[in-house]
Every structure is written in structure tokens, then in C-alpha cells.
Amino acid sequence: MENPDKTPAPNPGRIIPAKEPLYLEGPRSRGYELGFAFKVFLEFMRGFRTLHFVGPCITVFGSARFKEDHPDYQSAREFGRQIAGMGFTTMTGGGPGIMEAANRGAFERNGASVGCNIKLPFEQKPNPYTQTSITFDHFFVRKVLMIKYSYAFIIMPGGFGTMDEFFETLTLVQTKTLIRFPIVLFGKAFYRELWEYMEYLAEQGTISREDLSLVLLTDSVSDAMEHIQTFISKNYQVQPRRRRWWLMEKRPGVAVSANVA
Fold first, then answer.
1. Residue 257 is inside which H or E element, if any?
2. Whole-angstrom distance between the N-terminal and C-terminal Cα of the chain?
3. How many CA atoms lie within 13 A of 93 on its CB side?
4. Which of 137, 141, 99 is nearest to 118 (CA)?
5. What's the pTM value of the predicted model, to 2 decimals?
6. Could you identify which of 63, 91, 112, 130 might form a hypothetical disulfide with 57, taking C-beta atoms 3.0 to 4.6 angstroms apart as the criterion?
7. Strands across the sheet with 57-61, in order?
8. Collapsed DSSP state (helix, strand, coil) of residue 53
């Protein structure tokens, strides 16, 4: 129906502009899908090559929106320092906020610091506190690699992306798709309602009560790190990765193996 007063209809616009017009025509051509699969394969291979020698990591997830004066920024910075003190590599999404803070703490402690950035329409810029940085086109590739190289996960306060990372990691551990590693949910006040809802899920039988034991909810950086260190030392052995001269490795790194004794 034509607008009689010629006033343009309100247009809220897209939150994230589409790269190209989309038509609801179903699957793309086989050639397009093959090309897409090849691009994803190359992205995985680039990630494998970049991250192969970074050593065992502890991944810190959290909001990109917190500034330096925010208490959670300072907590993430302390996490980075303590992760470096344990001899592990701090891995984050490579952007600002919590990610910058954790990388910064590791950097200040002369520890290894890795950032796995993502291309966004509003250009999330890599923070300056990483020795190794890689930028991905696809969120799912980035998320796989941030989980693949990590042996513990710290979930700081955050938004949709952080919730996605938390629940996917938790689901992988719950279903034994991923070997059980420590998961820390940091911020009792921030995550109070979420934790209560998880308890409600247990009451309704959609998860097991034991599944809640997969996560430590805490406000203490020291308690979180003690939990991680105790779990890893009890269940795993950290040993040097053998250097093979024909691979031209830049750094030997370390490997973490299950303690089967």
C-alpha cells in the first residue's frame, strides 16, 4: 500500500549489514559449497600452523566492552599474571576488554600470550599484548581452536559471545566429547541468575545434578587458579615437547598428557 503523505517508512536498519543481498532460495550451488568448505579447511590449517607451538593454554573468555578502570578488567589482568606464573600460555579472543586484560597480565609477567581475533563489520582490533595473533573469518573455526589448545577455561562476565563460548565448552565436557578440564565461572553476582537457572534445569531433569560439578563458580582469582592447578596436577603431567630438527620449530613448547598412573 502506497504511503499517501509520501513520508518514508521507518527503517531501523540492520544491526550488522549483510555482505551481499540474500535471497531465500535454499542451498547454494555445489560449486559454491565446495569452495566454502575449501576456505574453511584453509582457515583451519592456518590456525593449526600458527598455534601448534604456543604450548598448553588456559583460555580466558569475557566481554570486549570493559575498560581499564572496570574491576573485571583488573581481575582478568591478574588471571593473566597467574596463568603466566604457572608456566601456561594465556589465550583469549585477542580483542579489547577482558581479552586485552588477560593478555596484558601475561605479557607483564613475561608469559606467553596468544590472541585469536575475529573479523567483524565494526572491526575488532587485536590488542597489543600478544606475541602470537591470528585473525579468523568464521566464529566456529575460532572457537574450535580456542578450545583445542586449552587445558582450562575461565569465563569472565560477558555477553552473547561469552555465553556461547561457555555453554559450548561445557556441553563438550558434559558429553565427554572433550576431555574434562577445569571450567571456572568468575563473578558470583554477575552469574547468580544464570547459576540459579542451571540449578532449575537440574531440578527439571534436563541436566544431571552432577553436571553442576563441572563448573566452579567463584569471586576469587586465587581460588580459581588453585582449583585449576590442583585439577591439572592431579590428573595430568606437563612435560617438554621433543624438539625435532627437521620440523624447524621456532620454540619447543610443552605438551600436556593424561596422568594414567
1. strand 254-258
2. 75
3. 29
4. 137
5. 0.82
6. 91
7. 132-136, 113-118, 89-92, 57-61, 150-155, 183-186, 215-218
8. coil
Instruction: Give the type of residue at 150.
Output: S
Per-residue pLDDT of the chain (261 residues; tens, 9 = 90+): 445 455 545 555 555 566 666 666 677 888 999 999 999 999 999 999 999 889 889 999 999 999 999 999 999 999 999 999 999 999 999 999 999 999 999 999 999 999 999 988 765 788 999 999 999 999 999 999 999 999 999 999 999 999 999 999 999 999 999 888 999 999 999 999 999 999 999 999 999 999 999 999 999 999 999 999 999 888 887 665 555 544 444 443 444 444 333
Are residues 119 and 137 in contact, defined by beta-carbon separation less than 8 angstroms?
Answer: yes
CA 81 to chain centre: 18
Q: How far is residue 212's CA from residue 207's CA, in Å, rounded to a whole number?
A: 9
CATH tag for 58-241 (out of 3.10.180.10, 3.40.50.970, 3.30.9.10, 3.40.50.450): 3.40.50.450
- Quick check: 102 and 109 in contact, CB under 8 A? no
How far apart CA 177 and CA 74 sit, in angstroms, is: 33
Between helix 139-148 and helix 160-174 the angle, nearest 10°, is 50
Torsion over CA of 211, 217, 222 and 225, rounded to 10 degrees? 30
CA distance 257 to 211: 24
Q: In this structure, are strands 150-155 and 132-136 parallel, antiparallel, or unpaired?
A: unpaired
CB 33: neighbour CB atoms within 10 A? Answer: 11
Number of CB atoms found within 10 A of residue 114's CB: 26
Q: Which of 168, 94, 167 has its CA nearest to residue 128?
A: 94
What are the grid coordinates assigned to 93, written together?
579472543
